[in-house]
Amino acid sequence: MKKKTRNIFFLFGIAAIILMILTFKVSFAEMWHDIQHTGYWIFAILGMWMFLYWMNTLTWKTIILGSGDCTIPFWKLYKVTISGFALNYATPAGLMGGEPYKIMELTPYIGRERATSSVLLFAMMHIFAHFWYWLTAVVLYLIFVPLDFTMTIILPLIAAFSLGGIYLFVRGYKNGMVVKCIRLVSKLPGCKKWGKRFLETHAKELANIDCQIAQLQGQNKKSFYGSFFLEYIGRILQSFEIFFMLRLVAVQGTPLQLFMYSLIILAFTSLFANLLFFMPLQLGGREGGFAMSVTKMKMIGASGALLTLSQAMTIAVFISIICRVREIVWTSIGMLLMKFGTKVKLKGQQ
Known about the structure:
Elements: H1 3-22, H2 28-38, H3 41-65, H4 74-90, H5 98-110, H6 112-144, H7 149-175, H8 178-185, H9 192-201, H10 203-218, H11 221-238, H12 240-248, H13 255-275, H14 285-295, H15 309-337
Helix pairs in contact: 1-15, 2-15, 3-4, 3-6, 3-11, 3-15, 4-5, 4-15, 5-6, 6-7, 6-10, 6-11, 6-13, 7-10, 8-9, 12-13, 12-15, 13-14, 14-15
C-alpha cells in the first residue's frame, strides 16, 4: 500500500477515535470510577482480546491457505487484522473502512484477486458465525431464562432472522455472491451507470473472485469448516468479557449460569448493534443493547433477590462503559500498528 493511502486511513481512524471520546455520553469521573471498580480485571479484559484477534487472524490465514500459499508473515497478518477491525469500529457501515485497507495490505503478497476474495470470505465467515451465535442464544434463553410476553414475540423473530441469514450465506457460499451484490447495488438510484461500467470493466476478476468463494465451501471443506469453527468459538469466548463483569457486580449464580447469561447478553447486544450498522462506532446502539438485554435476564443480585429495573440498568451502564473503554484502547492500538512493519518483503528477497 502507498504511504499516502495508509496515512489517509490512519488520519481517518484518529479522527474517529477523537469523535468516539467526544461523543461518549459519560463523564470522565464516572468512567474512571468504573475502571477503578474493575480493578485488575481490566487487564484481563484487554488481554483477552489479544487472543481473540489471534483467532481472527488464524481464521483469515486458514481461508487464504484454502486457495494457495500464504506468503504474508503471521505477525503481519495479525497486525493488519487488528488495524482492520479498528477501522471497522470507526467507520459508518463497518466494512467501508477495514476491508479495503486489508485488501490493499495483502495484495503485494498474494495478488489483488486472492486478497479480495480472502477478505470477502473472512467478512462473510465473521457474519455467518454471528448468525449461528444469535441462533444459539435463542436456544439458551429458552433453557436458562423464564419467558415473558415480550420475549415470546421477540425470540421467534430473532430465530427467523438468523435462519434467513444462514440460508442466504449458504447460497452465497455455493454460487458466489460478489457479482449479484454489485448488480443489486447498481439498481439503487444514482448507481446504475457505475454498476454497469464496473461489471463490464472487471467482469473476469469478479467471476474469479466468485469462483474462489464457491471453492472454499465446495472443494476446500477443511478450510471452510476450520475457519467457521474458529470464528464461532471466538464469539463464544468473547462472552468471558461479560462474565468477568457480572462477577464484579456480584450477580448470583453458578459459573455455568453466569456464563450462559453472558453469552445471551453479548448475543442480543451484538444483534442490536449490528442492526444499527450505519452508525459510526455503533454509538448508542451498543449501550442500548446492553440495557435491553440485561433488564430481560431476571438475574439475582447480591441481596439474593431479583435485580430491580434500576439495578439492572446500573449494571448495563457499567458493562457498556468498560466495553467502550476496551474499544477505545484497541482501536487506538490498531491505528498505531498501521505505522509499524509496513515494508513488504516477499520470500526470496534479501
